């Protein structure tokens, strides 16, 4: 049987309930043999990060442990000194897992809307499938996507079972997620001295307070 590995990449600055819900949704849908969380080292489309890699990793460990969602943290992007390009990560993962494993890179609808800005974005499909979850404020409908992304999706949209049973090249849209949370919103709330309680796992909030993060 083919193994299926799902990867969730992100800045996780900090990890929040939207990330946990996205991971949990695809853990249920795909039942992957492994769910890997891949914290970004230098996300080149972002204007810097607030928390250190060490703190972001610690918060990820706490969040997924509290959610009782077994994950493996893959820190290769933090260990690289180059800007974080997903294509590099997927090349490495494919080399590690071999040609037959099903690899699914997960993302929210906001990333799909700008997928054509990613480095070598069409080549991502040579190494992995993509699994996309809906996100409030970001439309998954064709009309909301760049034409080039729509063209790729039209060729690649497939049922989940096909993603599980083939190595790469397909796409799946999960319309059922509706968690209106962003790390930007959480950082802003924490800077204002608000608690951000329903947005973030309590263990992560404790960590943020103990380590005095997101104050400025
Ligand atoms: N509420 C959410 N619903 C669905 N997907 C999400 C949600 N929040 C984040 N994601 C997805 O998780 C991945 C990592 O996101 P990221 O760490 O950038 O969080 P973010 O909340 O978008 O951060 P920021 O507000 O700092 O841009 C991305 O693929 C993103 O689309
Ligand atoms: O490869 C790229 O060029 C690229 C451009 C933007 C985002 N990504 C990846 O998309 C994921 C979410 O990114 P972010 O910046 O919203 O946290 C994370 O794994 C990033 O490395 C990747």
Detailed description of the structure:
Helix 2 (53-66) runs antiparallel to helix 10 (202-210). This protein has 10 helices and 6 strands. The protein is globular and about 45 Å long. The longest helix is centred in the N-terminal third of the chain and has 14 residues, at 17-30. It has 216 residues and is of the alpha/beta class. It starts with a strand and ends in a 6-residue tail after the last helix. It binds adenosine-5'-triphosphate and nicotinate mononucleotide. The site of adenosine-5'-triphosphate has 19 residues, from helix 1, strand 4, helix 5 and helix 9. Nicotinate mononucleotide is lined by residues 9-11, 38, 40, 43, 45-46, 84-87, 111, 118-119.
For the secondary structure, the number of strands is: 6
Largest sheet strand order: 3-2-1-4-5-6
Radius of gyration: 17 Å
Largest sheet, in brief, is: 6 strands, parallel
Bound molecule types = adenosine-5'-triphosphate, nicotinate mononucleotide
Q: Span between N and C termini?
A: 50 Å
How many helices? The count is 10
Mean pLDDT comes to 96
Name of the CATH class: Alpha Beta
CATH architecture: 3-Layer(aba) Sandwich
CATH topology: Rossmann fold
- Helix fraction? 25-40%
List SSEs in N-to-C order.
EHEHEHHEHHEHHEHH
What is the CATH homology-level superfamily?
HUPs
Low-confidence stretches: none
| Number of self-contained structural domains | 1
Shape type: globular
**Helix-strand makeup class:** alpha/beta
Strand content: 5-15%
GO molecular function: ATP binding; nicotinate-nucleotide adenylyltransferase activity
EC number: 2.7.7.18
Protein name: Probable nicotinate-nucleotide adenylyltransferase
Pathway: Cofactor biosynthesis; NAD(+) biosynthesis; deamido-NAD(+) from nicotinate D-ribonucleotide: step 1/1
